[in-house]
Specification:
The protein is mainly α and about 350 residues long. It has 2 domains: about 5-90, Methane Monooxygenase Hydroxylase, Chain G, domain 1 (Up-down Bundle), CATH 1.20.58; about 110-340, no CATH class. About 65% of the residues lie in helices and about 5% in strands. The chain contains 14 helices and 4 strands. It has helices at about 35-50, 55-65, 70-90, 110-120, 120-125, 130-135, 140-160, 160-185, 210-240, 240-255, 265-270, 275-290, 295-310, 320-340, and strands at about 10, 15-20, 190-195, 200. Strands 1-2 form a two-stranded antiparallel sheet. Strand 3 and strand 4 form a beta hairpin. Helix 7 (about 140-160) runs antiparallel to helix 8 (about 160-185), helix 9 (about 210-240) runs parallel beside helix 14 and helix 12 (about 275-290) packs antiparallel against helix 13. The longest helix is centred in the middle third of the chain and has 29 residues, at about 210-240. It is globular and about 75 Å long. The N and C termini lie far apart (about 65 Å).
Length: about 350
């Protein structure tokens, strides 16, 4: 029995049959979702005019999914997404994730450092009872059940205190990614835990520029640094060695994620750096290795030098990514040392 949902569509322009997986008619080139595309584009334009750039980004990204990649229309809308994302970085809208009227990403070195420190404000917000976003993922059955499964595995191996702290640290790291993705209007799932591996989130769309991808990638270590810092603060306040161990492992895990390889957070951030910025960052990493003695940093430094020699590097520098990456290396390596 044939399933109507799988039956081919008929092109309204030339009458040819079009497979449901195609975005354009192979005979005449007419867009399969032309009417929906017009509606979505109209909604996106209206949202842009009203100043709701995060929602506008979400609609424009939806429009990209209705267009064949490589076409002129696809490139035009991808350009709109890139421009809106850059505007959102330099002029965050009030009330949106990441909004801060007094800070500007383009305000130079001082502004960049301030922005990184401000991003850690969620710790204080959570302490004041405003951590609703962090609790959001725990309302998803897949996240909660996979977290409980991982908790049982880690409890058996390390004890319940360390297991709980480690899982919360990983969870906060992943929710940092979700936070950044939502800011750019990119749909994503809540974290899914895998015992012995960590956790992952699935993106329903992907960033269209290296700048966006770098900021989404570094959001995890930024939030992870805050979680490790809280664990270290608890260890100082209570004298519980297990929390110091959580801080040390949390800092180490986030350092590991900064390796400039593949889909790791560091790899995604490295894609936004020029060759000279990559070499400069490699120097920072080697300096941190010399001062802290953390052997993982030696691997990061070697990998950074290797990536710097790659012929694929953007021509436009990304100061925010460079400074944020360097600060994360410095602070995480220091925390890993003092908490050990």
């Amino acid at each position: 029995m044939n399933d109507p949902a799988l039956a081919p569509l008929q092109c309204v322009q030339c009458g040819s049959e079009v497979a449901r997986s195609l975005l354009a008619c192979p005979s005449c080139g007419r867009l399969v979702h032309a009417e929906e595309l017009k509606q979505v584009a109209g909604e996106a334009e209206a949202l842009t005019q009203s100043g709701d750039r995060t929602e506008a980004l979400e609609r424009w990204r939806h429009a990209l999914g209705l267009l064949p990649s490589g076409t002129r229309q696809f490139e035009q809308i991808a350009g709109k997404v890139a421009a809106l994302g850059r505007d959102l970085e330099t002029n965050p809208q009030p009330g949106a994730p990441g909004a801060k009227k007094s800070l500007s990403v383009g305000a130079g070195t001082v502004g960049t450092v301030g922005l990184l420190l401000w991003k850690l404000k969620f710790v204080l917000a959570f302490a004041l009872g405003q951590g609703k976003f962090l609790l959001l993922g725990l309302t998803k059955a897949s996240t909660l059940l996979s977290m409980l499964l991982s908790f049982g595995v880690y409890w058996t191996a390390f004890g319940w205190r360390f297991a709980l702290g480690l899982l919360l640290s990983i969870y906060v790291h992943e929710m940092g990614h979700v936070f950044a993705l939502r800011r750019y209007g990119i749909p994503a799932t809540a974290p899914m835990f895998i015992p012995g591996v960590g956790a992952l989130i699935r993106l329903k769309q992907h960033p269209v520029t290296a700048r966006e991808d770098a900021r989404v990638g570094l959001a995890g270590p930024i939030w992870g640094l805050a979680a490790a810092g809280v664990a270290y603060g608890v260890s100082l306040a209570t004298g519980w060695g297990s929390w110091a161990a959580i801080a040390h492992v949390g800092a180490w895990i986030n350092l590991f994620n900064l390796l400039p390889f593949g889909s790791l957070d560091g790899g995604r951030a490295f894609n936004a750096l020029t060759k000279s910025q990559r070499l400069l960052l490699a120097g920072v990493i080697f300096a941190a290795w010399f001062l802290s003695g953390e052997s993982l940093l030696l691997l990061l430094g070697i990998a950074a030098v290797m990536r710097a020699t790659s012929p694929r590097a953007p021509a436009e520098p990304d100061r925010w990514t460079l400074i944020t990456f360097a600060l994360l290396i410095a602070i995480l390596s220091a925390l890993a040392r003092v908490a050990s």
